[in-house]
Amino acid sequence: MTIPKLSATTFIGVSGRGIISFGSGQPDLAPPKRVYKALSQCKDFKYGLIQGKIKLRKALARQYPKSTADNFVITNGASEALDLTLRVLAKTDNKKKNKVLLPRPYYYSYPWLVKYAGLRPVYTNLVNGRIDFDDFKKKVKECKAVIINSPSNPTGRVESMETLKKIEKLTNDSGIYVLSDEVYKDLIYIRENYLIKGPHVITINSFSKTYAMCGLRVGYLWSLDKKLVDKIIEMKTHTSMNTSILSQEMAYEATKLPRSFVDKQLKIWRQRRDFIYEGLLEIGLDLWKPEGAFYVMPKIKNPVDFVWDMFKKYKVITYPGEWFGSNDRVRFSYALDTQKIEEGLSRVKKYLAKEGSSHFIR
Question: Which of 31, 62, 276, 359 is the S-S candidate for 334 at Cβ 3.0 to 4.6 Å?
Fold first, then answer.
């Protein structure tokens, strides 16, 4: 059987007909009821401020040290924040430096965003799902910027506090920009999030994962580098202009929620993490234990064959590790209820039992 070239578009949005999807990283939990309040109250749908609604930026400023509303730009999801930042960095400071260091495995859009900005991705390979600081230190010296993603999509791993502080100092001393992608910062099972700080740090976040508001496309960036923020606003002025007014109103309502809302969500994610992790171990697969986000990445021989066969024969969607720079793994998202996880694991077990040892890596 000929396997077609698989891409994210093969599976994104595919559902129904008995399909169990471990694919897209989209929370199945409902958005908080409070955000719907904006639907009846918002009446102004004219163009808005390119930088984003002031009241939303002020609310976010209370969550970040030494900040005002001027340190934020509200974007169309975290993806636009990354895109704008990389394109601005490509045209600033030392133009001879055109490399961006990425941890591998990486979120599948990182290399593309770097290339679209006219920059060159280089990689530091993760060891047991975490950054090897010695390798990082050796490679980052030639880079204009580095992207840090903790908790990680696709690995679910969380970087150690020691490593993050070393990266913070090294990049600060060297004048290297850090793009810290923290869209999963509220979904950590082992400790509180550590916010990387410094004059060249750009923190990327969104309302998609914490509040299950993916389709509303509200993200933001935060930086104490006001000149960089201004350049990003200028670029956004001539590209997407303002982010959805209604979506920003709904995001503003989400900022009013107590921490207890996040804690309840986190309890559900931890239960699902334990369920799928233990289930995959029981099947006999080798994988890292996730410490945040909602992904697991077991080792699989012939992962593209596995992904295609599971989809066509067993109606189970997974993503091949090659999309994330890891050719011997498959990514499972556990952003679905435990009943569906259980059924999906049952189908995986049946398939692997039928295929024997051809898909196991020890």
Answer: 276
Backbone angles phi, psi at 75, to 5 degrees: -125, 170
* pTM for this predicted structure: 0.93
Whether 153 and 266 map to the same domain: the answer is: no
Q: Are residues 184 and 59 in the same domain?
A: yes
Tokens of 280: 């995959």
Q: What is the CATH number of the domain that holds 93?
A: 3.40.640.10
**pLDDT tens by residue, 111-132:** 999 999 999 999 999 999 999 9
pLDDT of 24 reads: 82
Q: Given 232, 254, 276, which residue is the final one in a domain?
A: 254
The residue segments making up the domain with residue 170 are 34-254
If you search the block for the tokens 């990514």, which residue do you land on? 331
Q: How far apart are CA 297 and CA 334, in angstroms?
A: 11
Could you give the count of Cα atoms lying within 13 Å of 291 in the half-sphere of its Cβ? 16
Is 267 found in the same domain as 247? no
Phi, psi at 201, each rounded to 5°:
-100, 135
The whole-chain average pLDDT of the chain stands at 93
**In a shared domain, residues 20 and 50:** no
H/E segment holding residue 276: helix 259-283
The number of domains in the chain is 2
Give the three-class secondary structure for 32. Answer: coil
